[in-house]
Every structure is written in structure tokens, then in C-alpha cells.
Amino acid sequence: MRKNWKNKGLWVGLLMLVWLVGCSSDGKQQKQGPANPNNHAGHDHAPTGKAGQATEYTCPMHPQIVQNEPGSCPICGMDLVKKVQPGAGDSVAVDADLKALLQPTNALVVANVATVQPERRTESVTLTANGIVTYDTRRLYTIPARYGGRIEKLYVRYAYQPIRKGQKLLELYSPDLVTAQRELLYLLEADGTNIPLIAAARQKLRLLGLTDGQIDEVVKRRQPSYSLAVFSPYDGYVVEGSSAAPAPAMPAPSGGGTSAGGMTGGGMGGSSTDEVVFSAAPSAPASSGVMDGALQVREGQYVQTGQTLFQVVNPTRLWAEFRLYAQDAARLKPGTPLTISFTGSGTPIQRARVDFVVPFFASGGTDASSQFVTIRAYLSGANGPRVGQLAKATLRQPVPNALWIPATAVLELGTERVAFVKEGGAFRPVRVQTGAQSGTLVAVTRGLTEGQAIARNAQFLIDSESFVNVTPTTP
To answer: In what helix (H) or strand (E) does residue 375 lie, and over which residues does it extend?
Structure first.
């Protein structure tokens, strides 16, 4: 009995000890709070966010899984993350300045750059144009065959051989000419008193190209001449019958448009054709069919009536032809003084005047900026330039009452030009049309008005042309 009571007391003591240890750990846990801060067991409210709303958790891969407490996704097992509530984050009020900055980049280009206003005044511009020295066509003569026949003797042997007026060029046998001589001799023998018929026979020989001296020689000898000489009626140089005077090649902009100080081939409506290049290098005037300076006319060759035997060029007076952009030549008139220099020949500079402005455009392209006007000045060929020589003309003319801006304020975009007008805190691209250029200034003929503030340096505003979207303007 005594042992049983002892065993029962031992078991009761152990139970009391276990009960005391459990109560002590439970008290500590209540003082320290829950080990997991996200464990809201025992609380009577749900987790809340900054705005007082209940915090929700979702799966990044499966957004349809939404819970009010952290955990794992039942589909993929990923940890749930807090779900961002709509409208969360800091908000900023958008004022007028910020609204301008938020415009699309292809509508407004924003920069803090210096501005300038267009000024209306009169400026004197310098025009330069490339050209070529060519024949004066009024001194380009043709020597035709007035009767058909065979060349018996040729005295002109090579192209560009100098000849003088009255010099013998060739001897020609012609059956028609022999017949006309016999008619005159027959009238003299059969009806020597018939003055009208004899005068008509003489006139016929004159029209065939015989001189009075040759006719008198036939009458004196009383025999027809079977080989008659052809004399030159002009001074100059002999060229082939089919040769033509050289003309300046069509100038082409290196990029399209008019030339200027900032011109790169088309430039920005400038005042110079310095950048105009020839589409083909002009060569010295050459005769069609001339080989090594020889002529195609040969002894023993038959020619027909009216066939051109030679062309004779008198180079004592020449033309210098230049091509200007149409807008540069708009105010150009005959009599305008110009200075002509010659490329790489040592020929001294000549001063001349514009003698003729061709009344038609020479088109080098499909747009208006590729139209050219040809001007002509007369030069003295004595100890001066040669035909086919390159030349450059420089002339000045005033541009009255024009709107001028810095050339750097215009941006070249291929076939069009733009300037940036300041509106509020931003710059808007505006299509402009430019004219002549004077130094660092360029005249604007369309697109801008006085009082507008434009960017002084248009190139500074962009790093790519793709940012500029020009709004079409009504004409």
C-alpha cells in the first residue's frame, strides 16, 4: 500500500511540473507577441495598406490567385507578393510648362537655346557662277558647195587651220559649171550684141560661186575652165562642216536646291553657284569625225550642191556663258557689271557686262530649285581666253526689302527647309522658303514674319532629322 501511494504521488508531481512549464512558455509568448508578424491569428481585423485598404497578395505568374495573407501559389508554388493597388504612388500636378514638355517629340523640339528675330532691310549680295567660254555664233560661218562636182585639189589639210579672206581652199570640177561657161561663150560668139542674155549668163556664173575675175578669165581665154578654185570669204579657223560650238554643260546641285554659304549642293536658297558642278567635264571644241586633226574632206571626193564643206570660226570675239539659279537671276538685267576669272590658265581677269539674259529656263531636274537661267557676256579673244576654257563670274546686286535671318537658323531636310519658331517653352518646326544669301545672312521669302522668335542655331536642336515633323501650311 505504501509503495502504491508513493508511485501515485510521483506521477502527480510530474504532471504538476509539466503544467507549470506550459503555463510559463505561454506567458512569454503573449508578452513577446507572435513570432511571425504576418500571422494575424487571434486578431479581429485584416491587414491594411497605406491608404487604409486591405492588403492583397497575388501570384506574379497567375494573377487570378488573390489572397488576404502571404502564402504560396496553389498552381506553381511561387511565393505570393503584394498586389499594387490602383492609384497608388505619388501624384504630381501638371501645369502649363510641364504640359509643353510632355508633348510628343515629333511635334515639338524643346531646347534652351539662343533666339533671334527676322529683320527686314536691304542687303547687297554677291553672286558667283561657273561657266565656259564658247564661240560667238555670229562669227561662226559656213562655206557650202554651190555646185556639185569632184574635188581636184585641196589646200586645207587639217582642222583649225588658220585662213584669211580670199585664200584658196580647193579646186573643184563640176559638169554644171562647165555647162554654164559654155553657154556664156556660145552667146558671145553667136549673139554678141544681145546684152541682156550675156548679162544673165554672167549672173548665173556669179550665183554658182565664180568671181568677176574668174568670169573675165573665161571670156578672155574663150575656153571653159574644168577646175575652178573656191576661195574663203572669211577670216578665222577651219573646222569640220558638222562641228558645233561648245556649250556649257548643265550644272547640277550637289544635294538639290540653290547655293549658299551653307549650301551643300542645294544649300539653303543662297546667293552663289560656287557649288555648281558640271555634269560632264567640258573638252576643247572638237569636230565631229575629226581624227588626229585631219579633215574628212579629201581630194577626189564628190560633193553635192549645198553640202557644207567647212565651217570657219573667227575667235576675235567670244562668249562667256554662265548659269545661275532662277531665284538668283530674278533681278539680273543686261548691263550689270561682272568680273570674270579663268581657271588654271594664267589668263588675266576681265571685266565685262551682262549682254544677254536667255529668256528661257534650263531645267536640271524636276523641281523649281533645279531651274537655271543662262547669262552671256562678250569677251575679246585677242591674247585672251580660249574656246572651251572654264570661267567663273562674280557680280553684286542689291536685294531690297527682304526678311533676313542667320543662315544657321535654317535646317536643310532634303527637299525642304525649316526654321524653329519659339512658342511658349518649346520650339515648333516651320517650313520656310529661302532666297539670296549675303555673308552669314539668308533672305526668307516665305514662312516667317517679323517679330517671331526663332532658334539661332537650328542644328543644335536635334540629333536626328527623324524628330522633326513639319506641319503642312496652307499657301
So the answer is: strand 371-380
